[in-house]
Design a protein that fits this description.
The chain is built from 14 helices and 17 strands. The protein has 487 residues and is an alpha+beta fold. Helix 3 (76-92) runs antiparallel to helix 4 (96-104) and helix 8 (237-251) crosses helix 9. It starts with 8 loop residues before the first helix and ends in a 28-residue tail after the last helix.
């Protein structure tokens, strides 16, 4: 193979991280070596059937075992805590190599979109002065994040040559920024959930009770959950099918060890759940029956607008990336007429806007397979708010970055509120010909039509619960380490 020439000590040494940087409470005097492309590798060994475990073994056979982390054994914030504390101690001693190491550090995460989102949330929460960019290895069912940034959507090879080839791609990759989004959910308290959310909710949503005085959702007797999203939030029939799939996989994990079989099972569940039936036959409530939806558009300060949703829409998707359900692009590229008439833009990953799309059923979704096919474009917005009151259903289904859950709806006069808002940006690694486009890249179509937005001004207008994901709760800096210069 063409990549066999990579299998030599000189190439591998460029990625090596010395053990002294990976150990806790060590007095590191200086860097014993200065790698050109140091990488920390995070692998969900339970993703991709047996592939996650095989990938773990291969990476550890190539690199220092301690720089390859099994996420089933150690959380990413724990690892990053050790590394960055040691870097700061070296920099405090005047070791110039430590600053260069920090500049060159890259992260690799292997798992599904939920696993990648976990690491992205941790890095976002740390607010480092030099946050490392992240490359994603597709080990899930959808793999929307890897696909959008050029890393593919099929499970990778786990042999030594395949891994070395991927490392070489990471070395050559370009950096891009991606918008991060904060999701806040408030509902009436039904059970004690501190410090963790009920099991029904995805791990990306954390119980959170410290709310600011400026929070108009701060209601006595309510629970607050917060989290982050990078790819999408969806609600309705598509999330219901995803929930059925994940429930079946939990009950029979031995049947879900092959990516192709998983995708076939997913399609069959879509049929059994009624997702392929016309709207008036399926019995599922439309989005407009379930909730009121409000949006805050770009350039609008503190002004919510009601979003009109056709009665036929049974699934709504809020997109950050041009990739959904394993690579489809529900937003497409609006024509110049629609851009002018409806103030729509292409789906850039760093423009501070979510694309909001509606679907009637799965047949409607199949138009995405046609040239220039897209869903029902509802709006683009910097904030979106769902308000659920007692109405046509006892529950609905929701999904954040591939993690679905069954959401109970109000039984009495209480209100369930979900609000998504722009939080900031994180650096990603991307191949040169990736699908994701930047609003600041002159080579991207219509880049000159997109206005920049100062996200710092937004942060000043909201309370504490909007400013971080809560993904790095265990990250603690020792008192003796001065990090006052970090952002």
């Amino acid at each position: 193979m063409a990549s066999e020439h990579l299998d030599n000590d000189e190439f591998i040494e460029k990625f090596h991280i010395p053990s002294s940087l990976l150990e806790q409470d060590t007095e590191v005097q200086c860097l014993p070596s200065k790698p050109e492309h140091p990488v920390l590798v995070f692998i969900n060994s339970r993703s991709g059937g047996q592939l996650g475990g095989e990938l773990l073994v291969t990476y550890r056979s190539i690199l220092n075992e301690k720089q390859v982390i099994d996420l089933g054994e150690e959380a990413p914030d724990s690892v990053l805590r050790k590394v960055f504390i040691n870097i700061e101690r070296l920099k405090a001693r005047g070791d110039e190599s430590a600053s260069e190491f920090e500049m060159n550090l890259k992260l690799i995460v292997a798992g599904g979109d939920g696993t990648a989102g976990w690491l992205l949330g941790v890095v976002s929460d740390l607010r480092l002065s030099q946050p490392p960019p992240i490359a994603t290895v597709p080990l899930g069912t959808g793999n929307n994040l890897p696909f959008a940034f050029g890393w593919g959507k099929k499970n990778p090879g786990t042999d030594r040559i395949s891994v070395l080839s991927f490392m070489d791609q990471v070395r050559k990759a370009k950096e891009m920024k991606i918008d991060s989004w904060h999701i806040l959910m408030r509902m009436k308290a039904k059970q004690a959930c501190d410090p963790v959310a009920p099991l029904e909710l995805p791990h990306s949503l954390h119980a959170f009770h410290r709310v600011s005085s400026t929070d108009d959702l701060n209601v006595e007797g309510s629970d607050t959950f917060r989290g982050g999203l990078w790819n999408y939030f969806s609600m309705g029939m598509d999330a219901q099918v995803s929930y059925a799939f994940h429930t079946e996989r939990k009950l029979n994990p031995e049947k879900f060890k092959n990516q192709l079989v998983n995708q076939s099972t997913y399609a069959k569940l879509g049929c059994s759940q009624g997702w392929f039936l016309p709207s008036h036959f399926s019995g599922a409530a439309s989005i407009s029956q379930l909730c009121n939806v409000k949006i805050m558009k770009k350039h609008t300060t503190g002004c919510w607008q009601d979003l009109e949703i056709p009665n036929s829409v049974r699934s709504i998707v809020c997109l950050n990336l041009p990739s959904f359900s394993g690579g489809l692009n529900p937003w497409g590229t609006p024509s110049s007429y629609k851009r002018r008439d409806r103030d729509l833009t292409a789906p850039y990953v760093d423009d501070g806007l979510l694309e909001i799309v509606g679907f009637r059923n799965a047949w409607h979704g199949l138009v995405l397979l046609a040239p220039n096919g897209h869903g029902t474009r509802l709006a683009q917005a910097q904030r979106i708010r769902f308000e659920f009151r007692k109405g046509s259903a006892q529950e609905t289904y929701m999904r954040v970055d591939g993690e679905p859950w069954k959401q109970p709806l109000p039984e009495n006069d209480e209100t369930v509120v979900i609000e998504i808002s722009h939080l900031g940006q994180v650096k990603m690694l991307a191949t040169l010909d990736c699908r994701a486009k930047s609003s600041l890249d002159p080579s991207s179509p219509m880049a000159h039509d997109v206005d920049e937005k100062d996200s710092d001004e937004e942060d000043k207008e909201v309370g504490e619960e909007w400013r971080k994901f809560g993904a790095a709760d265990t990250f603690r800096i020792p008192d003796e380490v001065d990090l006052s210069h970090l952002s």
